[in-house]
Specification:
alpha/beta; FAD/NAD(P)-binding domain; seven-stranded mixed β-sheet; binds flavin-adenine dinucleotide; flavoprotein; FAD; EC 1.18.1.2; NADP; oxidoreductase
């Protein structure tokens, strides 16, 4: 992929909306690039609720967040668009009849049309201050910041490091599955808890709670074996651990819409039914858009992605048919 290779449509944001837009655009034979800032696709679904069941997507009686995203990646790979991760789009400039997108790594991406599927931005996992001293990168496989691939916790000792309610949600989810679940929090109380959460925690025989600071991760042969903690009396204890789950909240890095010149309404991109932004050639879909009757749901993002891609296609080539049936396109 040369720096100046021209794509038909470049989609910014690889959440569920961007993934579906990328699939749909390649299904319509467009040359597509998808750019995502995180190291994984799936957006909010993967960052907030990969383990939760979703019940409001047509065709799925229920589906967990990570299964949905895995299936979407399988779907988008059918036509193999160019898909980049760890790439943050900083600027979008119109140059002659193309757009040039510049990313934080200094690369330029040239495209005839753009679809914005950025949500409000991207979320980064917060960490306690002393964690920079802990040997995380080396033991990344043993430390997770969301509850994906939860079968790996079956019969294992799990430590949950958190200062808020998420610890209880995860602990209850793993109760009966993991061999042991121990919550470690600096304080006696987790933030944002409800009375019923405390009752559920107290009535559990298998979930333990420690008010302590994590002082080290004990590792044998690149595998986590224990989490060392120090309680308020200075006593140091090693908790047996195969895995550690950590959650200290998420911080939003907002997408630089102001620099992209698109008209906004309350921080979201103003569109009408055609998903066109105020800049000709730039379309938008998903949680990022605002219009009368907008719902922030995964399924709404899918429909908006179809419209945005079809309109982008028409922008590039006014002679194309706006809508095509997949049953007709594939004929199988
Ligand atoms: C707790 C919770 C529960 C929910 N439950 C449901 C539910 O049950 N059913 C349902 O339908 N919906 C639910 N939703 C809503 C659903 O998650 C969203 O509607 C959906 O995820 C929006 O997808 P999106 O792709 O539009 O945006 P996002 O998922 O926000 O994806 C945007 C992507 O763009 C990337 N990005 C942003 N800026 C840039 C940039 N400058 N460069 C490169 N990449 C960038 C981000 O990293 C991110 O991956 C829930 C939401 C939350 C928070």
């Amino acid at each position: 992929m040369g720096q100046n290779e021209v794509f038909d449509v470049t989609i910014i944001g690889g959440g569920t909306t961007g993934l579906f837009a990328a699939y749909y655009a390649t299904m319509r034979n467009l040359k597509v690039k998808l750019i995502e800032s995180q190291d994984q696709f799936g957006g909010k679904v993967m960052q907030f609720f990969p383990e939760k069941l979703i019940y409001d997507i047509g065709g799925y009686p229920d589906v967990s967040g990570d299964t949905l995203v895995k299936q979407m990646i399988q779907q988008v790979n059918r036509h193999q668009p160019v898909m980049l991760t760890k790439t943050w789009v900083e600027t979008i400039d119109r140059v002659d009849d193309h757009f040039v997108l510049e990313t934080l790594d200094g690369m330029q991406h040239v495209t005839k049309a753009v679809v914005l599927a950025t949500g409000s931005g991207t979320f980064h996992t917060k960490k306690p201050d002393n964690w920079d001293d802990l040997p995380f990168p080396e033991y990344r496989d043993s430390v997770a910041t969301n509850l994906m691939d939860e079968d790996k916790y079956e019969g294992k000792d799990v430590v949950i490091a958190s200062n808020n309610r998420q610890a209880i949600v995860w602990a209850l989810h793993l109760e009966g599955k993991a061999k042991s679940v121990t919550i470690v929090n600096e304080n006696d109380k987790l933030q944002q808890t409800r009375e019923e959460d405390i009752q559920q925690l107290e009535s559990s025989d298998t979930i333990a709670y420690n008010a302590a600071t994590i002082t080290n991760l004990v590792v044998d042969n690149e595998q986590l074996t224990a989490v060392e903690i120090k309680d308020h009396n200075g006593q140091v204890v090693k908790l047996k651990a195969d895995y550690m789950l950590a959650y200290y909240g998420l911080a939003l890095q907002a997408t630089p819409f102001d620099a992209w010149d698109v008209a906004l309404n309350k921080g979201r991109i103003l569109v009408k039914g055609d998903m066109a932004t105020s800049v000709p050639g730039i379309f938008a879909a998903g949680d990022v858009v605002q219009y009368e009757g907008k719902t922030n749901l995964i399924a709404s993002g899918y429909t908006e992605a179809i419209t945005a891609v079809n309109k982008a296609h028409k922008f590039i080539d006014p002679s194309v048919t706006e809508q095509l049936y997949s049953t007709v396109l594939y004929r199988k």
